[in-house]
Amino acid sequence: MNPLQQLYLQAIIKHQEQEKVKQEEQVQKQSNEILKQQQLLSLMSYSTDNLIEKKAWSLIDIQNRVTQYFQQQVLRKQVVTIKNCIEYHLPYFLNVLGNLIIHGLDQIQGETEQIVLLKTQFIAQPNKITMSSSLFQTLSLLLRSQLVQYDKGTQFLSKFLIFRDDFCDIFFNTLYQYSISSNQQVSQQLSFNQLYSMIKKVPEDIWGTFIFKMFSQQQQKLNKDQFLVQFNQYTVNMNNFFKKSNLIFDVVENTVKQTAQMHNDSIFQEYLLIMGSFKATTQDFLRKATSVYFEEHNDEIDLNEFNIRTQKIHKQMNCSILYILPMLLQIESHMIDMIQQDRYNDNTQVKNSSNYYLKMIEKLKNKCVYNGEDECNCKKCQCIRRNRNSAKESQRKKREALEKIGPLQDAYEELQKKVKVIENENETLRQLLTEVFKHPTVSQLSPEFIEPLTKVIQDTDPVQHSNSYEC
């Protein structure tokens, strides 16, 4: 087990102890939530007069009543029909959320002046709309259940990233801010302004802030143990996202036009780049990030240091792996906006398995981010490990063969050198004899001894060959 794995194991053990305490708190919280839900359901049988309080309602009181109304619609599986009341240009999903909340305000009885004032404010300045956790989760469930009738684009919100059951809590718990009402009630609120900033990426470091808050769980500092545990969970969540059906994959799957003819071509390309980057660099990023974020004795970092070092790592590795979640939120929002603007033709929504992007996405879906690491035991990783072991064994045999051939190779090279020397000597002797036989005296005498010498050579050749063969 390497040091990184040991460190990760220690972080897991520590995290499990913390989770045990959290689970006990969660059980108590769930019990209270069940009791609260029972009380809310019992209120459905009361007359509306019993819901009207004599004192003015706070924002959280109004949100609870709007939440209750939508909970009833979900329980009864009734479709909520809404109209556009917001003229301010917003991303499509925020426009739908805003109109849903305004519709919910219209269904509340009591404190009419306060409701009208709040509704007027929301219509004029929709970015100031905020949602409590229960309201946001209820609206997400309503959209996932396809119980909202607005226009043809609403159906795509059922798989929109921020409304998915595996991500809506992550977004709320990361982006919420504390709000204090006029009667001193403190609540956690998710604002439209925060979501709008995430889509527009303004300010520039908002994605880094988002990831830091997600990893540190809204704390001021992020320590090494938290980073290892949270990055692992982040990897699992994103891996599951790419494996399962999602908004962009569904649009790709239902598109017949090929490559460059697609209206959404640039978005499909960006999605492929994000998916490919995540699949290819996840484990390499973890190794490098651990050393860069937490240098030597530096066991924790703040938001500013986190953003600086994240940019440094992303630049070194030529990827933006930590920003994948907000990047996906942004391109899915752009996709829905394009659908809403009629850039996507409903008549072309038929399955086409030969689509280039579909093939590439299917190919990447089958690639595991662990890439054969011991942490994963899926079939793909097992196959990669077998291939690696086979390659290592082949390399080992090759090295052993080279070690055995080495001395023979040296002897062969020495023999080649000697042959070269002899050939050079023979060439020198041949040239010398040629010069000698050019002399007139030697020239006259040469027939007397060259012919017998030739005969001797011819007579001795068979014997030599015969002796060589016998040996």
Q: Would you give an account of this structure?
A:
With 471 residues, this protein is mainly alpha-helical. The chain has 16 helices and seven strands. The chain has helices at residues 3-43, 59-76, 92-106, 112-124, 133-144, 168-175, 192-200, 206-216, 224-243, 247-253, 265-293, 303-317, 324-340, 356-365, 379-437, 440-470; strands at residues 80-81, 130-131, 148-149, 177-180, 186-191, 221-223, 300-302. The strands form three sheets. The protein has a three-stranded antiparallel beta sheet with strand order 2-5-4. A hairpin with a 5-residue loop joins strand 4 and strand 5. Helix 6 (168-175) packs across helix 8, helix 11 crosses helix 12 (303-317) and helix 11 (265-293) packs parallel to helix 14. The radius of gyration is 39 Å and the shape is elongated. The model is unreliable at 45-54, 256-262, 346-354 and 461-471 (pLDDT under 50).
